[in-house]
Amino acid sequence: MTTNPFDADRPPERPRGGRRRGGGRGRRVDESVMVPDVQFESYYGKNVVKPAPWGSPIPAYLFLGGLAGGSGLVGAGGALTGRPALRRVGRFAAIAAAAASGITLVMDLGRPERALNMLRVAKLTSPMSVGSWILAGFSGFAGLAAAAEAGRMALPEDSGSARALRVVEPVATAGSAAFALPLAAYTSVLLADTATPTWRESYRELPFVFVASANCAAAGLALVTTPTAQNGPARRLAAVSAALELGAGELMERRMHPLVAEPLHHGRPGTMLRAAKGLTLGGALGATVLGRSRVGAVLSGAALLAGSALTRFGIFGAGIESAKDPKYTVQPQKERLSQRRAGGEVGDSITTGR
Amino acid sequence: MGYLARQLAGPTDPARDAAWRDPEPRKGFFTDTSICIGCKACEVACKEWNAIPQDGDLNLLATSYDNTGGLGASTWRHVAFIEQTTDRIEAARESGRRLVDLGMPASRPPDAPHPRATDAANTAPAGPTGIPPIGTDGDGAMAAATAEARTAEATGTLPDFRWLMASDVCKHCTHAGCLDVCPTGALFRTEHGTVVVQPDVCNGCGYCVPACPFGVIERREDHGHDGTVSNVGVAQKCTLCYDRLTEDQTPACAQACPTTSIKFGTLSEMLDTARDRVEVLHANGFSEARLYGANAEDGVGGTGSVFLLLDEPEVYGLPPDPVVPTADLPDMFRKAGMAAVAMLALAVGAFAGRRS
What we know:
The complex is a heterodimer.
Chain A: H1 24-27, H2 31-34, H3 57-80, H4 84-107, H5 127-154, H6 160-192, H7 197-200, H8 206-225, H9 232-255, H10 258-261, H11 267-290, H12 294-324, H13 326-342, E1 351-352
Helix pairs in contact in A: 3-4, 3-6, 3-8, 3-12, 4-5, 4-8, 5-6, 6-8, 8-9, 8-12, 9-11, 11-12
Chain B: H1 14-17, E1 27-32, H2 41-50, E2 77-85, H3 86-102, H4 138-155, E3 161-169, H5 177-181, E4 187-189, E5 195-197, H6 208-211, E6 218-219, E7 235-236, H7 242-245, H8 252-256, E8 262-266, H9 267-283, E9 290-292, E10 305-309, H10 329-352
Parallel strand pairs in B: 1-10
Antiparallel strand pairs in B: 1-8, 2-3, 4-5, 6-7, 9-10
């Protein structure tokens, strides 16, 4: 700290560098050089809350879980409205993405061998516990739906197992659609139910961003993989979901404390989110205008998938950044505390005069 | 409030809410930073008793005499060290005065004279005005310190600088974010009202880490990669020496503290002690003294670790207005439910449209 007026009287520093005599005096460096100018709003710039110790498997899971949920809906929609290509793609994508998302979750555990402890309790106050059960339920129904689909392709129509699969097929369709919704939505609560400033402050709009992003990803995959004759629902889903995602995202950034919204615009997360907006918008427009051509559908679908992935990685990264810098924690807290005090509320502060 | 409503926010008895039929009186710490000398005996005693490994590489942070930095998986007590000049002391006194003027909830009428205020000479802090010179009569030095503080208050002549030293620890919140979000049940509420991790159950999901509004709990890494570190990949934090508590022993840090800066007892005793102490300091002119965590109406329903601070909490690296994330969880699930309905509506709309 160099704020003491007496520091101005210190003798000039001796030039450093070159050969140093070993031992005591030579190694000693003027303390005022080592100690940075301390901002007293924080403890030497140290973070107050800790960032989640999660690596890239977690944002990958956010994307894959969304893709699984959205594809579950697409598969169910295809089955209910008689669009076999959408049904097939939706069902296989749902179980594949669900399986991959399970792998990403296990990868990121500190003790992967204890992964099944996730199902040790069912706990409503823990979005991760709730989510584990949702993922387990979804995977069961999506697996059944995929088995039914495989049965349609591989088994003779009059065999016993084919008949059994036809009986369970409607249950699988309904179950995977029912679990698809919470699977796509809960991940927003997972992020928001933390002390990480940017995630927590986004809790009102983030669920809408995430479900829309899930729909965009699933629509994108369907556009890439289904013939143009059947991709009408995917094109429409892409258009309306992109509108919801961009609208909810805009509202989220505007309603947030400006300081807490900052990580959404700066650095790598900011770049990712800008790219995500462009890709989502471009993909949705492309799907609407060019989606009837095979090439147009594939390109727009790929843009939508990439946009969804970048949305997840961007929001994830912005939250991590907001936890690393104490200003995002301390400044908004001080402001809301003084606002409450200005409003006459004096009884709810953790700091008290007596 | 009903049982369900008080599970997420507000004052409550956490041990009873956790279904302990006949819980012990809630235990807690009172850390009086005005008499902390920064010796770090608490850090060492904690490490010794709990067999905590080295916390990362040995390095000098080059910011102060504190080279630990903060609480973490392998640091369950952390002594903060802050050096301040006159302007900062004046700012701290001013913010302390404003706090008292706000009229925060009081344990006794503010005008009633405190029984121990007259005995103030023996309890004035060493921190703000310096440690009494060795060899002098202790009482005389304390009386001098108090006189100096009173003069400073009257004339505005404050010391050139002061050192703040404070031993931080897990707050053992009434509504603990880490405990609420733990998906495996590894974190649990003990019969003493404290929050403890079961390292053999935790699968290292790491969710408790961002859920703590104080940034206390952390997942342990194996820095040396030599396999000698226990509980690697598992969330770790202060247990308030659960093993010692079950044997009616004092936690290691409190027992090792040479100045009684760290006090341990039932939470109600700790709160009484803290309120007495802050009144004594105020009566002696140390208006910067304030309590942190002594209010059950705060964002975490009150903490099990009470602190007496001599400046704003953020100066010590503590959050000024922490709120347990799960306080808003019902609303979060509601919003997510609405989003799920929107998602279904979009899909139905997309498939119900004309066939193409």
